[in-house]
Amino acid sequence: MAEDLREGLLLGMGNPLLDISANVDREFLNKYDLKSNNAVLAEEKHKPLYEELINLYNADFIAGGSVQNTMRVAQWFLQKPKVATYMGCVGRDKYSKILEDKATMDGLNVRYQCTDQEPTGTCAVLITGKNRSLCANLAAANYFLPSHIEKPENKHLIDIARYIYISGFFLTVSPESIQTVAKHAYENDKMFMMNLSAPFLCEFFQTPMLAALPYVDILFGNETEADTFAKVNNLNTTDRKQIALKISEMEKINDKRKRIVVITQGAEAVLLTKNGTVTEYPVTKLPEEKVIDTNGAGDAFVGGFLAQLIQGKSIDTCVKCGIWAATQIIQRSGCTYEGKPDFQL
């Protein structure tokens, strides 16, 4: 129950990024060789686009990074500060201060590692109509070191967490840290959760992803990520219900509970696999004019889900709260919200 909510119950690890969000046209995407509704890591050719967005497109700054978004949304539901802790690496600059201020205002206990080697990471959020293309320049986020989680004050925060969530994006940064916390979760019978996060991760970071998967109690992903995972790992099916089932049956080290797999499909039903059964949850279809920006919908879904999970609510309630959260977020620009949530079953 909510009374059991305590500081440090939930821990998230990921890449803290300052989102630079703007509406652009398709020519802009083409200019930088980007696709709508996709996520890529910035290459050299993408570096000029950040300044261009700021100077020419009236961009908004939002505290971002997938896991930080999810933790912020969870905190919004919980309405009690510091239930969620967040770790990631930032630069020593004005952007990291903006990030920390915004995240702390949202109730997060922020434990950034700071590096002098790169500036704070940024993510261009390019909105074309209802779609969004993400281009992340990880910069400082790439410099997260396992030494950060060995510091006594941070190790303590890992020790007191009962639920640990990481993004697939973090596989590109510190697989070693992921393995450390995954093993810790297994040895202490904690809930370890991961997100597939982007199709390119399923393809190009298959080895660290498959190393983490045996520890994963709950796996989240969207339809394109699930499709790519199935193809790359030769699951020999394009039926998403079968994909969810097959992923749930892959090797799992903690046999006290079976893996739950959650696949979101945009405006289509959410698929959830538990104990060999697939359940479909219809999503709330909004009128076209109410959808402002789909960026952050997946992060918000997981935030709503986790807010209920850590309160011991049923999986049904978790999914329904996730859907409700995503529905709220897509009616605003970026992963933002206002007021208190009035989620009801």
From TrEMBL:
Cofactors, names only: Mg(2+)
Pfam families membership: PfkB
Alphabetical keyword list: ATP-binding, Kinase, Magnesium, Nucleotide-binding, Nucleus, Purine salvage, Transferase
Gene3D superfamilies found in the cross-reference section: 3.30.1110.10, 3.40.1190.20
Cofactor note (record): Binds 3 Mg(2+) ions per subunit.
One cellular-component annotation, GO: cytosol
A molecular function GO annotation: ATP binding
Catalytic residues identified in the record: 299
Domain Carbohydrate kinase PfkB positions: 29-337
Superkingdom of origin: Eukaryota
Subcellular location: Nucleus
Summary of the function given for this chain in its UniProt record: ATP dependent phosphorylation of adenosine and other related nucleoside analogs to monophosphate derivatives.
Protein name: Adenosine kinase
Organism: Pogonomyrmex barbatus (red harvester ant)
Source taxonomy: Eukaryota, Metazoa, Ecdysozoa, Arthropoda, Hexapoda
